[in-house]
Amino acid sequence: MKIIDAHQHYWHYNQSEFDWIDDSMKVLQQDFLPSQYKEEMKDNNIHGSVVVQARQSDQETKWLLDLADHNEHILGIVGWIDLKSKSLEHQLKEYKTSTKLKGFRHVIHDEPDINFMLDPQFINGLRLLDKYN
Fold first, then answer.
1. Looking at the domain that runs over 4-131, which CATH code has it been given?
2. DSSP letter string over 14-77?
3. Domain boundaries in the chain?
4. Which residues is 104 bridged to in the sheet?
5. CA distances for 26 relative to 7, 17, 31, 55, 84, angstroms
6. Closest CA relative to residue 50, chosen from 97, 86, 104, 95
7. What one-character DSSP code corresponds to residue 82?
8. pLDDT tens string for the chain (133 positions)?
9. Distance in angstroms (rounded) separating the CA atoms of residues 81 and 55
């Protein structure tokens, strides 16, 4: 049986960007990159992984897609996209060509606006996701 790691992160650690990682999580206060994970995969009989964005930015999604292009064990990417963006439809059309991009995630609980999900632009963004599958 092939084992797939279905939720895995890569990052260049930066304390200001990952301020939620406190001293009780020192093991996370470092870079995590494909070269390190390949050894873990061998030791644990892992066939591949789905990499999930750790930062909410377009740059993060593009960086992960670039990693996927250069690392065959990355079987899929769950990226981030601004669902309220006026250029969302254009971005979704561009991303449609990325075979390793499997979806998007938005960390809602980090939004300061309690009604974020009720915003008409956000709802329209969800509709566009549905349209572009």
1. 3.20.20.140
2. -TTTTTT--GGGGGGSS-B-HHHHHHHHHHHTEEEEEEE-SS-SHHHHHHHHHHHHH-TTEEEE
3. 4-131
4. 79
5. 20, 15, 12, 19, 35
6. 104
7. -
8. 889 999 999 988 888 888 888 889 888 888 889 998 888 898 899 999 999 999 999 999 999 999 999 999 999 999 999 999 999 999 999 999 999 999 999 989 888 999 999 999 999 999 999 998 7
9. 11
| Residue 104 one-letter amino acid | F
Q: Which two tokens stand for residue 19?
A: 């301020």
Judge contact between 81 and 58, C-beta under 8 A.
Answer: yes
User: What pLDDT score was predicted for residue 17?
Assistant: 82
Strand arrangement, sheet containing 101-104: 3-8, 46-52, 74-79, 101-104
- What is the spatial distance between Cα 100 and Cα 116, in angstroms, rounded to a whole number? 29
Residues in the chain: 133
Residue with tokens 């990355």: 74
The CA angle 13-111-106, to the nearest 5 degrees, is 65
Q: Both tokens of residue 79?
A: 């990226």
User: Rounded to whole angstroms, how far apart are CA atoms 105 and 125?
Assistant: 12
